[in-house]
Automatic annotation (TrEMBL):
Protein name per UniProt: Phosphatase PAP2 family protein
Localization: Cell membrane
Key words, A-Z: Cell membrane, Hydrolase, Membrane, Transmembrane, Transmembrane helix
SUPFAM superfamilies, A to Z: Acid phosphatase/Vanadium-dependent haloperoxidase
UniProt organism field: Paenactinomyces guangxiensis
UniProt keyword Nucleotide-binding, yes or no: no
Cross-referenced Pfam families: PAP2 (PF01569)
Residue intervals of the Phosphatidic acid phosphatase type 2/haloperoxidase domain: 64-171
Domain of life: Bacteria
């Protein structure tokens, strides 16, 4: 078990260094702080509310399912952040590039990534043709969290699984009833 933990820490540290330092460029420095907010509460809830208001009746329910997946997955995120506290990468690893207004709470798991995937997978399950829009959106939000040194790769991976799992579970539950 100790060797697995050592490998994961080494993997996390080397990949965060690659994404945050080696891939650093002017465009990503401008783009990532903007795109990362698309996984935040304001953007995700606004998107779902707008969808609910303007879409035809037969597809309005996607927003309800997305909201349930979002809220339920975030209850788990909140629980994990409380009981498995992990210091954010930029606070623990030297020489990482930070950006304005960095977060100071715990990093595990990535709530923004969880939110993006809970919505993306919900919508893709209903309309697979939307995968070309929603999957790049969710992946980019997750990548931005590492680029900004706010999350380790494992934080993002677990957020991906949480958001996707709650989306699949919610959609399947609604199909049963």
């Amino acid at each position: 078990m100790k060797s697995l933990t050592t490998w994961l820490v080494r993997y996390d540290h080397s990949l965060i260094h690659l994404v945050n330092c080696q891939w650093k460029c002017r465009f990503l420095d401008w783009f990532m702080p903007r795109v990362t907010h698309l996984g935040g509460a304001t953007a995700t809830l606004s998107f779902l509310a707008l969808w609910l208001m303007v879409m035809p009746k037969m597809i309005k329910m996607w927003a309800v399912e997305g909201f349930i997946a979002l809220v339920s997955s975030h209850l788990v995120v909140h629980f994990l952040k409380m009981f498995l506290p992990r210091i954010r990468p930029y606070l623990q690893i030297r020489h990482l590039h930070t950006f304005p207004n960095p977060l100071t709470d715990y990093s595990f798991p990535s709530g923004h990534t969880t939110a993006a995937f809970s919505i993306a997978i919900t919508f893709v399950m209903h309309a697979p043709a939307l995968i070309g829009i929603f999957l790049p959106y969710a992946i980019t939000v997750g990548f931005s969290r590492m680029y900004l040194a706010l999350h380790y790769p494992t934080d993002v991976i677990i957020g991906t699984f949480l958001g996707s799992g709650f989306a699949v579970g919610t959609v399947l539950l609604f199909e049963l009833f």
